[in-house]
Write a structure and sequence with these properties.
By secondary structure, this protein is an all-alpha fold. About 60% of the residues lie in helices and about 0% in strands. The chain starts with a helix and ends with a strand.
Length: about 190
């Protein structure tokens, strides 16, 4: 029989062990995601054009670079959580290149500014990616159709459906500012 104090100590230890186990599990999951990114897409991650996407904001305050990595990681999570068999290499590479449009779509002074960015950027991203990388049919499908239903023709492969879902999820978090990115300082005011 335990005294009240001993029970509390054991209970707290149990809580801390569960919390530590939860953090360890999340750490291992992230580590595996980054291992897969490096394994299948180190050339994309190191490329000068992909690095330049750090300079463009996607939604809210999230740079395109961070958004694409988040979509790739979320795609991996979705495929594993739902037990969807897919080609991890093509899933990751397509997710990283899905928004490879290489410009600031918020800049209204840009020569080719398009109000309908959501409709046009998949084609622009596809053309840019195709110039730099040898794309598979699945990667093409992911990039071209990730904005479905705006792209009208739905994705044709599992990988494209997963990236489309992950992109919408990440975009929602970014737009609602549930996921924060960089802080902008404008005229001394932090936003």
């Amino acid at each position: 029989m335990y005294s009240g104090g001993t029970w509390k100590v054991m209970h707290l230890k149990g809580k801390h062990q569960k919390k530590n186990e939860k953090y360890r599990k999340k750490y291992e999951e992230r580590r595996e995601q980054y291992r897969l990114l490096r394994k299948y897409a180190s050339d994309i991650l190191r490329s000068q054009n992909f690095q330049s996407t750090r300079n463009y904001i996607q939604h809210g305050t999230i740079p395109v670079h961070r958004h694409c990595i988040d979509v790739a990681n979320q795609s991996i999570k979705i495929s594993k959580a739902l037990g969807i068999r897919c080609n991890e290499r093509e899933l990751i590479r397509g997710a990283l290149l899905h928004d490879y449009f290489l410009y600031d779509w918020h800049d209204k002074s840009r020569k080719n500014y398009q109000r309908l960015h959501g409709f046009y950027h998949p084609g622009i991203a596809f053309r840019n990616a195709e110039k730099e990388y040898h794309l598979t049919d699945r990667e093409r499908d992911i990039i071209k159709k990730h904005m479905w239903p705006l792209t009208v023709i739905p994705p044709a492969c599992r990988e494209a459906w997963i990236v489309t879902t992950a992109d919408k999820y990440c975009s929602l978090l970014e737009t609602l500012r549930i996921r924060h990115g960089i802080r902008r300082v404008k005229m001394g005011i932090v936003k």
